[in-house]
Write a structure and sequence with these properties.
Elements lengths: L3 H5 L6 H31 L4 H29 L1 H21 L4 H24 L8 H32 L8 H14 L10 H8 L9 H14 L1 H15 L2 H15 L5 H21 L8 H19 L4 H28 L6 H15 L1 H38 L20
Helix pairs in contact: 2-5, 2-6, 2-7, 3-4, 3-5, 3-9, 3-11, 3-15, 3-16, 4-5, 4-7, 5-15, 6-12, 6-14, 9-10, 9-15, 10-15, 10-16, 11-16, 12-14, 13-14, 13-16
Length: about 425
Amino acid sequence: MLSRSRLARRPLFTPTRRLVLANFLLVLGFTATYFVGLIGCATYQLGAGAAEVSALVILLNVALVVGGALAGVVTDRVGPRITLAAALVGFALIGIFALLMPLSYPMLAVVSTLEGLADGFCGTTVSAYPRFLTARPRELKRMNSLCGTAVSVAVIVGPLIGGFVTTLSTNQTCFVTIPVASLLAAALVWATPEAPGTVTCQRASHATGEKPAAREGFWHQLAEGFRVTFSHRTLRTLFLLYFLGFFAYGAFDSLESLFYRDVLRVSGDWMGWLSACAGVGATVGSLLVLRVSSKRLTLGTLSALLLVTGVGSMIYVGTANVAVAVVGQLVTGLGFGAMRPVKDTILQRSCDVSYVGRVTSVMNAGTNSAGTLPLLVAPLVANVLGVQGTLFAASAVVAVLAVAFLLLTRHDGEKDARGASGQAPNENR
């Protein structure tokens, strides 16, 4: 038998590999159940229309914002390890509930809300985690790229598993993946403590003689996250790029399943197959980031990638041809897959570690809330333009906004990280 020390030296047991695998399992469980399970149950098993689907997604998005905001403060107080492990266990319990309860629209509404809270907690914490393991820009880029690749592969595998389960049983059965994946991820996270050199805001306050963060109110700490984000030029621009860039994509959440059913005229399992195509493109995109110098991970690069997603989405929904939709999903996925590690690296090197959790929560809150208004408007617009016309118009808006950000950032050179206090930490250089 191999000794424990020899096992610990194996690549799988390094903090990076554990975090990457946990990322994979987290996203696998969610992607197998969100589109194919939650939306699929509403669209195919309950015959829901655009308004009913929109309501489910609105509940999830609002809960995402709340969960992400809570997670940012908790992560900066106690660290990502405890926060993420606890959230993953909660996710597992939600999956069991969704699997065992009788299918109804109220049940899906409850599940949508709870999944949003859990995913908000998990998404914010796992995005902040790399900064608690290293401060070196090159290592941050590598870790974020590998985590992005894991997410992209999960986007392939998750919907495929969901689609496969659907062919054997029903959309509701997809929820079995959540408890299995989440509990495995929780075990990996629990074995991945923060690096000794990192500090939470609580420990940092004790070290400087300031008021302990744990004694500060939640709203005060949350406000600090907004202050840091909007007082830092790079972080402020990053927030606006994601908020405005993802604003139009809210239309997809409420209308995409109807596009499959009424325009492409494919069965429910195709929700999994086409989503997997986006995952293939995203895997390629995240791996390409590994080949790019960390100095080139700039706001201009991020704007160009947003343009790729907009053009890809226009291809995706531009016809009623499934083959063209596949190409569009591949291109769209390529853009999204590269965007995540670029965004996370820019954020982490632009923010002091004691604020990473809260700044990440502000960023995620912006992204998640951006799609809420389109969710309300999209069904009304679809009555005029049709489902396909509305989705194509939304994609075109994304492309136009991306061009605007490209023009805005073309003269801006990305600078090395600056701490939340305005000081550039030496460890980030």
